[in-house]
Input
Amino acid sequence: MQGIGSDDHVKGVDNGQMALQGKKIVLGITGSIAAYKAVELVRALTKAGANVRVVMTASAQRFVTPLTLATLSRQAVLTDQSAWEAQMPHLTAARKTNLLLVAPATAGRIAKFAHGLADDLLSTLFLACTRPVVLAPAMDAEMYRHPVVQDNLARLRSWGVRIVGPATGELASGVWGPGRLAEIGEIVQTVTEILCPQRDLSREVVLVTAGPTREPLDPVRYLSTRASGKMGYALAEEAVARGARTILISGPSALAPPYGVEFMEVETALQMRAVVLDRLTEATVIIKAAAVSDYRPAHQAESKLAKCDAPLMLELAPNPDILREIGAQKGARIVVGFAAETGDLVLRAHHKLMAKHLDLIVANDVTQEGAGFACETNQVVIIDPHGGAEELPLLPKRQVARRILDRVVSLRQQKNRV
Ligand code: PMT
Output
């Protein structure tokens, strides 16, 4: 963890923007090793202009002291102990806040909330709170995967509680998996979206493609790309949050479709082409984040190809370039492509942009750590037809999506002025 005196420790937060000015947030901190990250979170929220009232459970205080949080939030921290010294502090705090955020939220705390156990200040406050509630879970991967935790989260979601994360990565136990507290930037962004919704895409129908395509060779094997769908799903989620009717056309992915999208699943490039062209007339913005296979096996065997000792020659047929077809008939639509490159990033991406008649192309060097396929973050250059190249820092994919859609909004404004 970097020193809290530096500003760049809050990865991906738009520092300097007082997006939460005047908003009151109750931040519940529970007893997870990730409680130390709440220090960064308080700093990021206050920097964004929020008035943060911290509530700490007894176990959270074993990981980080109330004094640290009181100093950063510039007000006394509420604890079970201090609750006995005030009159109905849970009701007062619940009524005064605009939003209740619990980060980190342990498996035990999630269970308490899901079942209405009200035996300490934070759990009574949760029941008394009629404002939006956001939870950022943090726990070990096996605990997170346990069906009872998943059921509890689903129950909370069904009541409108917003769950951010968890992220996947190395956990305190040394295990790799889901369970890390979401990035601070992602938590602040979620809070900002809820308290200050941006509706600048409410007139648009955004069609996003995501994930890989699979090109069957026989009933058990296929050719594919390494895409997980994370970049495209983040774009769809951001488009929904900003008011767009959003159509997400996805190749095979393990991700759950974001809330509020019209979701269509495809397998092959030919299927993706058919569905995209079918929905084309509705779309006013098209963003092609999918990593479509450029080739498919020319012949698909009806039964499993038998192993033999001789080399096997595969004949591949080129797949149609869906984006090129869209670019050729784009009309008033805004069309954004992606370019996954392993060298000469800007040059090659610019060539694709011109060849496919795009408004923007988002170039990512997929050899860079933290960029491209399957990771939570991406580092991209947004290139326009006039040679402009906006280089973004390494950001969570959701924040990359936000910056791309910011460019779409300003393009629409420019187009409307002409
Ligand atoms: O899904 P993730 O794991 O989050 O990974 C994200 C990503 C790396 C897949 C994404 O950021 C990305 O770079 N997507 C585009 C990958 C790609 O196929 O690049 P390309 O340079 O081969 O294709 C250029 C553009 O043409 C892309 O917009 C692609 O969707 C489109 N295309 C390509 C081939 C084809 N037959 N039809 C197409 O429409």
Observations:
- The pocket of PMT is lined by residues 211, 227-232, 269, 288-292, 294, 319, 321-323, 337-340, 352, 364, 366, 372-374 (CB under 6 Å).
